[in-house]
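Lay summary. Proteins are chains of building blocks that fold into shapes, and those shapes determine what they do. In this project we predict the shape from the chain. Here is one chain we studied, written as its sequence of building blocks.
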Amino acid sequence: MHVEPIGRHHQRPAARMGPPADVLLADEFFLMAHDDTTGQSRLHDVATRFGLAAALLGELGISGHLTFAPGALHIRDARPPADWLQHQALSQIANEPQERATRTWLAFLATTAHENVAQRLIQTGVVAPEERRRLFGLGPATVRYVPHDMNRAAWSWARLSMRLRNSEPLDVFDLTLAGIAEATGLDRFILAGAPYPTSGYLRTLLAAAPPQVAALLSDLHSAVGAASMNPRA
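And here is the predicted shape, written in a compact code that computers can read:
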């Protein structure tokens, strides 16, 4: 049976503000999930990591390498993607042909997704690591990834917020991004101060999402819920 990928690589309209035309789903979710000035996380660590894992799988769906069904993913195109992080993720999935449960891969990718996506953004000059030590130097240092350009960092959440508030249609890229935001609780930030019907409009869009997008988002909801209840997550 012929199965179409969940959507083509997102092309940003030239008239819109922001970075160059080609954007990647996990990069955009990473920027949305962190403050566009300080790099501080807007989400609990579990939600951030699983959201990034879902976004990486979503990238492989958008590129046509993976397809999604309820509870499972399948390799549609095993040829290596040009992007090193997508290549790494696809290789890991291909090397475990017996394991096709989407939730398993969400949990696996979540262990390294934050560091890997941050590294990709560092390589493209979007963010820079900044080490922060606790007061009086007590405890281990933490690292934040601070955006070089606040406008670049704010572009995705501002775009989604505007389109949802204006009840505009979303393409597959933005619908998947909005769905990951909703599954991780980031929609509360994106829709802060919006009229009540705006959240209903988002739910309506997600209820009508293409089957592959819906399958990925459903498994993400389940994975985030299960991981949040696990004190070791």
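What the prediction tells us: The chain is about 50% helix and 10% strand.
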